[in-house]
Amino acid sequence: MTRASIGASPPRREAREKVTGSARYTGDVALPHLAYVAVVPAEIVHGRVKAVHPEDALARRGVLAVLHAANCPRLNGTGWADLAVLQSRSVVHRGQFVAAVVAESPRIAHEAARTVRVDYAPGPHRLSPDTPGDGFHRPPDHGPFFPTDCSHGDVESALSRAPVRIEATYTTPPYHHHALEPHGTVAYWHDGALTVFDTTQGPSGTRDILARLFEISPDRVRVIAAHVGGGFGSKAAPRAHLVLAAVAALAVGRPVKTALTREQLGVVAGYRPLTVQRIRLGAEADGRLLAVSHVSFEQTSLTSDHCEYPAAPTRTMYAAPNRETRHWRTRLNVPSPTWMRAPGECPGMFALESAMDELAVACSVDPVELRLRNDTANDPHSGRPFSTRNLAACLRLGAERFGWADRDRLRAERGDGRRLVGMGVAASTIPQYRFPSRASARTDGLGHYTVRIAAVDIGTGARTVLAQIAADTLRVDVERVTVEVGDSAYPAASWAGRSSGTTSWGTAVVRACEGLRSAIGRCGGRVPDGGLEAAADTLDELATPRTHSQHAFGAQFAEVTVDRSTREVRVPRMLGVFAVGRVINPVTVRSQLVGGMVMGLSMALCEVGVIDRTYGHFHTRDLAAYHVATFADAPWIEAICIDEEDFHTSPMGSKGVGEIGIVGTAAAIANAVHHATGHRIRGLPLDVRALMDERAMGNGP
What we know:
- 25% of the residues lie in helices and 23% in strands.
- It contains 16 helices and 23 strands.
- The strands form five sheets. The chain has a seven-stranded mixed β-sheet.
- Strand 13 (275-283) and strand 14 (289-301) form a beta hairpin.
- The longest helix has 22 residues, at 501-522.
- The chain is globular.
- The N and C termini lie far apart (61 Å).
């Protein structure tokens, strides 16, 4: 009898390769006659390159070429100025590639790069707005997935009449990705065709962009990403090092490898931008919202159109008849920001959920109860019903499991004179997306099945989960299914991002396997000697407008201790309860949720990107300066999922889980610090050292 695969936890398909070290990442690729690239970064913040002097570098043995704007192969128009590598003499931020050395070894390349002299004509630069609003402008009318701004009702009038009002500004600093595997590329040309091994979250999209850059047909480009060691958004779109590898390989006529150093990640790989968010809440005395205003200010670069959209989740989170959300940004001479895990929702929900906690205190209402009172069955922004919205169930179950009802008693009992104890809560949400993808399914007629899709496994267990989906659709045991991913030669797939991988790729796999079952049925169950294959494309299926608002929800609970003497904040335990549809693989789902919560803890306590406001470079360029949470910082974390199915979001009934774990975590910790100390901290990371007055370190409000 065939065993059901969805809901089980079979071992990860690539587990043995990874724990034994046999899994081959981009950096492990070794090709005959491989050359290496080292870049020459700009030493000015803004201006022009007057001249490049490569003579000393070229005189070194083993140096093959020195590329710069005067001799680099020309690229087609990109639409992304950050990919126009060595195409112009203009410098728009410090660290921009202005030249590159190609050599026989990494050592020779890096040593030679230090000898390349560059003459500059510096220009005026701007690294920080003087005040919020100075030089700010609205992004385009529509963001990537939703309108830039929205307004319902009369917010100002409702705020002026509200019995209870909260107005506060919350800040989050720049955040860097620092995936375990640095970004890298190996590229080579053969008979006018380009092959690249790349650390990408989207082989299909990367292939198409490279084809446009070099003005060749997409079928002349192949992108391979067998294993990717984390991305968090920084590997979702092509970066300058990828284009440089392909350009250098074209210039020297042999394979070329580029690999970013840890220090280069903040410049080339992007980062989450700084945000300044002003929130105003108006409510009845019982905490029911009358008005919500959420306005965000952030920075971007001169070459990027990126916007974080932190106010977007506020549109759908709680019911309020009067609402406005607005986004403003300013262009600076800084490297381009990019997507990072839960873009928008992560910093945005820190601000909103902190403000909701302030409202609960002002109304003398329990913070869990306040959120329940403002729950809604319909999306306040679109008016559509939610496909599923089990936020209330998450809050209630989490409160029960965490001992929330006893939090004031526990605060008093667990405080030992030196340490203060507090508990906090915050809600989480993430929108659900399903992007067009293709997949193929084949059987050899001997009981074995192969599924191919140009998805990429960035450490989430995609191979395993897609095998489970295919097995249940084919009604066979999962051991009989092989899944092949990570190659643009396979049917085109969407990128791994926005918590959309399983829903997008899984839908394509379901449709391909349904097609294969139908083909087998038409053959009367007798598969021809050559086997059978079916393919599917979900583009037409996704053209139908949505009838429901599709989001995942969750509730985060945190307990903190604050040392009166050292002001050190520790988090002894955290609990997350999530409503993410049908759970396909409990082990991989828990891994994603707990991993996201650890990132949220790190965001709350440790991480901060610091840019030099004079010279334009990040001070926090490596893991010695940019601190991240470790195992010792998170001794007890648990993530549980409630039972639900959402067949509006996917034919499997599942939702995406990659991002929701990070959303709300920092707010829950900040709210717990307030509960412990009576002091509200509205900027991250939480700096309790500001509480130097012992009177401000009382045992809570």
